[in-house]
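Dear colleague,

Thank you for sharing your sequence with our group. We've completed the structure prediction you requested, and as agreed, I am returning the results in plain text so they can be pasted directly into your records. Please verify that the sequence below matches your submission; if there's any discrepancy, let me know and we will rerun it promptly.
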Amino acid sequence: MNVTKAGSSGLYGLNATNATAGNAVKAALLSVMFNLQLGSDVLTDQGYPRTELILSGGVTKTPQLGQILADVFNAKVTLFDAAEEGTAWGAALMGAYRHSVLQADDADAADGDGHESWSDYLSRVDKGEANVEFYPDASRHEAYSEVYAKYKQLVKDVISEST
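Please find the predicted structure tokens below.
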């Protein structure tokens, strides 16, 4: 399979009995979540495991997706009150942190103290109130894990066919 910018996508496993609009939408959403899981697995393998997911942006308009994410990732998922502004808030935090680093670097030239780490900086930031928290359901996680294993195999198959 030669995948290019003009490539196409497909939904694996749909048949005459389960090819409903709802199943097609859920398959598309799960493919995005599983792709995020692939990246998360790499980070975990490199010693950076996730302990929680925080939802922001457009996905927050459908909070039920938070439960599916919790079940897929087997992790707590938090949706904050101001989640729709999450991307802008994150950019503002990074800008404020960078500004503090530059100020600390200027001061460091004088006193040698250095600057605060990103983790320490985030631990001091008021994150607002958690509006909704989702916790994984073990049986649903197990079911999603089986589907995820099939997804990973399909990804490997597509990659091997395209090389």
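Summary note from our side: The chain has a mean pLDDT of 81.

Kind regards,
the structure core
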